[in-house]
Write a structure and sequence with these properties.
Number of strands: 10
CATH topology: Metallo-beta-lactamase, Chain A
Strand content: 15-25%
CATH architecture: 4-Layer Sandwich
Order of helices and strands: HEEEEHEHEHEEEE
Number of helices: 4
Structural class: alpha/beta
Shape: globular
Strand order of the largest sheet: 1-2-3-4-5-6-7
Largest sheet: 7 strands, mixed
């Protein structure tokens, strides 16, 4: 199955795109976001990573092909995880530039499937990404973050409408971690599901 089949997207305007994994049907399915910026583009959460998200971004036309002749047309691409649960961090390994909150950086670097709360079942993946694929084979791959986020900061100039991303690390009542990204001056935020 190609990346074009696996993913689908919807434009929300102002350079913001909502992306989802079409054949992963679960209450755990993360929203994947592409935010086109003036100096870099940012993917917020990457889904399971069963198909290439970067391939989808380029082949669907959401991003200009990396073979483009004009360097100015190619902005850096940064993948940011709101938290490292498997449905948000599974595709981070596909990106050269990865950002995560410092509280979860070690778990991501270890590929810690306990910390990533990896519980995927065959029934949630309604169309196998490849012949013979089974959920029990799935693991979040270890990724060394290239940017460690701290409370109150974030990747500069990450989106089209404002100049900063504010990061706040939070935990739910059960102690699960997550980051809250307020990127459009309270117009839009990315957070735990």
């Amino acid at each position: 199955m190609s990346a074009l089949e696996w993913y689908a997207h919807k434009s929300l305007g102002d350079g913001i795109f909502w992306i989802q994994e079409r054949f992963y049907e679960s209450g755990n399915r993360a929203n994947i976001w592409l935010v086109r910026g003036s100096e870099q583009d940012v993917v917020i959460d990457t889904g399971l990573g069963l198909r290439s998200l970067p391939e989808y971004l380029y082949s669907s036309g959401l991003l200009q092909d990396c073979g483009a002749k004009e360097d100015a047309a190619r902005r850096p691409l940064l993948a940011v995880a709101t938290h490292v649960h498997f449905d948000h961090s599974g595709g981070l390994y596909q990106f050269d530039r990865v950002a995560v909150h410092h509280a979860e950086a070690e778990a991501l670097a270890r590929g810690d499937n306990f910390e990533t709360v990896t519980w995927l079942s065959d029934s949630e993946v309604v169309r196998a990404p490849s012949p013979g694929w089974r959920a029990r084979q799935f693991r979040v791959q270890a990724v060394q973050p290239t940017l460690i986020l701290q409370d109150g900061n974030g990747p500069p100039r990450a989106r089209a409408l404002v100049e900063t991303v504010r990061v706040l690390h939070v935990a739910d009542l059960r102690g699960h971690k997550g980051c809250y990204f307020d990127i459009l001056q309270n117009y839009f935020c990315f957070t735990l599901p």
